[in-house]
Design brief:
about 300 residues, mainly alpha
């Protein structure tokens, strides 16, 4: 971040919209609200992920806040004037009467009619409980994988902006490299590598993936690479100090691209590792935390 000036921020013509819940909504604030946010996220996480693949508009921070909290769902609940329906809001079935803002019109109607259950189970196949949202380890898992999904969606937005006519074809190949980036602790798949920064092979594979993603972006050829011929550089042959220098310059270019073209700082690429899946207390105690399933 220190290598990119906030003065380069492109002006926003409208409020930023997010395909996924903004991570800052899960930070601080009223603890009871935070508990509800995590609970709603765990229950709706499958629908949140699938929402990204459907032709639905992204949402503002305030809209996501109302969905993660009770505000929006209470507005969907029948008014007390309607005596033929249960008008008492049920916080465990908050989605019962649908919500087109989140589900879209068609799926919302199916939810309200009882034809579709949008709730998710935990990966250990247990029900999500309100107490689950209080578990700090589960919260850590949620934020880790949510950050990774934000990276994925942000790169996709940048690709769509810069390659309007060839985006669909290009993304089919770029998606592979983007997945390598967001799975930074083990780019080849499998278990989490907690020694990422001490594992030369893994880190260099990750940096190679970053280079492959950004090398055709606007401004890449004119960026100050400190004497490196980055497009054709054999990253695996770099000396240790040169490798660190290149890492900083690639990350600076990546951040600057978002700042100058989309007007925001992107989600962190280098975020701390964590275990893979949120399980209930009993299953985590029995099987441990290193399962292969993911929260998103």
């Amino acid at each position: 971040m220190n290598h990119v000036s906030h003065l380069d921020l492109a002006p926003l013509t409208e409020r930023r919209r997010f395909s996924l819940p903004p991570i800052q909504l899960f930070w601080g604030g009223n603890e009871e609200n935070q508990r509800i946010f995590y609970f709603h996220f765990l229950l709706l996480r499958r629908e949140i992920q699938e929402r990204c693949t459907r032709d639905l508009p992204s949402l503002t921070t305030d809209e996501w806040r109302s969905i993660l909290g009770n505000t929006y769902w209470k507005q969907r609940w029948p008014s007390r004037d309607n005596s033929s329906l249960d008008t008492t809001f049920n916080p465990t079935l908050f989605w019962k009467h649908g919500g087109p803002l989140f589900f879209g019109d068609t799926l919302s109607a199916d939810v309200a009619a009882g034809h579709h259950d949008p709730s998710s189970l935990l990966p250990c196949r247990c029900d999500v409980q309100m107490a689950t949202a209080d578990d700090p380890q589960i919260r850590q898992v949620i934020l880790y994988h949510l950050n990774s999904r934000h990276v994925y969606e942000e790169v996709k937005e940048m690709e769509r902006l810069q390659f309007k006519t060839t985006f669909e074809k290009r993304w089919r190949s770029q998606e592979i490299e983007v997945n390598h980036i967001v799975e930074m602790w083990d780019p080849s798949g499998g278990g989490t590598d907690f020694k990422f920064f001490h594992n030369k092979k893994v880190w260099r594979t990750w940096l190679w993936a970053v280079r492959e993603v950004v090398k055709d972006w606007d401004g890449f050829d004119s960026w100050d690479w400190g004497g490196f011929s980055v497009k054709t550089l054999e990253i695996k042959s770099l000396l240790r100090l040169d490798f660190y220098r290149l890492t900083v310059r690639l990350l600076a270019f990546y951040i600057h691209s978002f700042v100058s073209r989309l007007g925001y700082y992107p989600s962190p690429l280098l975020h701390p590792p964590t275990f893979a899946t949120p399980s209930c207390y009993d299953h985590r105690r029995k099987f441990g935390v290193g399962c292969a399933l993911h929260v998103m």
